[in-house]
Amino acid sequence: MDKTQKILVTKEGLEDLKKEYDELLNLKRPEAVERLAQARNQGDLSENSEYTSAKQDLAFMDGRIAELEQVLHEAKLISVNHKKGLVDLGCKVTLHVNGKKEVFTIVGEWEANPMEKKISHSSPLGKALLGKRIGEKVEVDAPVGRILYKVLGIE
């Protein structure tokens, strides 16, 4: 992770990260430790696939906990007091694309989730939209070719 770059998150995104951290640390990790202890008591560890699996799960969980601790330490809330009329981090943008309306939220990289229409400010579409006004158009290269978007609304 680049130390010079702050991790930008919305208030909701920060709450989600804190919730995941708390759940991992206080609920899932203790369960994984107990699972590992039970598997260890099953005998020969060299042929115990449950022990190996529990050990790997715990290591993965510990890695995610450490990652979240760093993210939460480095996180900077996105200010929602963005300039009126301009696309900025934290805003919802209504776009016209391929004959239909789509609403996207511009978020930091840690919150990006295309399935929820949350796009990162550093994605090709996010970069193209930043600073645009209602009525402006942007073209973005996509695997299917160039896609034209028109900004219909900003909130």
From TrEMBL:
Regions that span the bilayer: none
The entry's keywords: DNA-binding, Elongation factor, Protein biosynthesis, Transcription, Transcription regulation
GO molecular function: DNA binding; RNA polymerase binding; translation elongation factor activity
Residues annotated as domain Transcription elongation factor GreA/GreB N-terminal: 7-76
Coiled coil region boundaries: none
Biological processes per GO annotation: DNA-templated transcription elongation; regulation of DNA-templated transcription elongation
Cross-referenced InterPro entries: GreA/GreB_C_sf, TF_GreA/GreB_CS, Tscrpt_elong_fac_GreA, Tscrpt_elong_fac_GreA/B, Tscrpt_elong_fac_GreA/B_C, Tscrpt_elong_fac_GreA/B_fam, Tscrpt_elong_fac_GreA/B_N, Tscrpt_elong_fac_GreA/B_N_sf
Chain ranges of the Transcription elongation factor GreA/GreB C-terminal domain: 84-155
Family: Belongs to the GreA/GreB family.
Functional note: Necessary for efficient RNA polymerase transcription elongation past template-encoded arresting sites. The arresting sites in DNA have the property of trapping a certain fraction of elongating RNA polymerases that pass through, resulting in locked ternary complexes. Cleavage of the nascent transcript by cleavage factors such as GreA or GreB allows the resumption of elongation from the new 3'terminus. GreA releases sequences of 2 to 3 nucleotides.
Identification of the protein by name: Transcription elongation factor GreA
